[in-house]
Amino acid sequence: MLGMRKVRMRWPYPRRPLLGRDLPRTFSEGEKVFDQRVKAQFPVGSSERTMVDQLRSQGFSVEAAPFYDGWRAANVRRGIVIQTLWSVRWRATANRIDEVVGIYGAIAP
């Protein structure tokens, strides 16, 4: 058909975020590595806006409002029944990161 582009979806969708690639096999060890990567990429005092832009470029969905005590989150969930979760959570003041953590694990019904 003219004008129709073939769109190829990769499975499972969405893609694994760059920060979450090549983690150890166990979630407990993987979360330690993911948290270290997040803290190194987005150190305390750095720009919240820049961090949010970088996370969105990797496919993270940024929550519109804080979820608890000023904490905000950006997440990638991958899978159907059991989902793998990569989450970056932070608190900021005046566009500067005060605290940041990386969460990596699974969500099951």
How would you summarize what this structure contains?
This protein is α+β, with helices and mostly antiparallel strands.
Which key phrases capture this entry?
4 strands, globular, 4-stranded antiparallel β-sheet, alpha+beta, 109 residues
How is the secondary structure organized here?
Blueprint: H1 27-41, H2 48-57, E1 61-62, E2 72-78, E3 83-93, E4 96-107
Give structural notes.
The protein is α+β, with helices and mostly antiparallel strands and 109 residues long. Strand 2 and strand 3 form a beta hairpin. The chain is globular, with a radius of gyration of 16 Å. It starts with 26 loop residues before the first helix and ends with a strand.
If strands are numbered along the chain, what order do they take across the biggest sheet? 1-2-3-4
Describe the oligomeric state of these chains in a short phrase: single chain
> Strand tally, please?
4
Mean pLDDT: 90
Shape: globular
Give me the secondary-structure category: alpha+beta
Taking pLDDT < 50 over at least 5 consecutive residues as the criterion, the unreliable ranges are: none
Fraction of residues in helices? 10-25%
What proportion of the residues form beta strands (DSSP E)? 25-35%
How many DSSP H or I helices?
Answer: 2
Distance between the termini: 41 Å
Largest sheet at a glance?
Answer: 4 strands, antiparallel
Q: How are helices and strands ordered from N to C? A: HHEEEE
Cα Rg:
16 Å
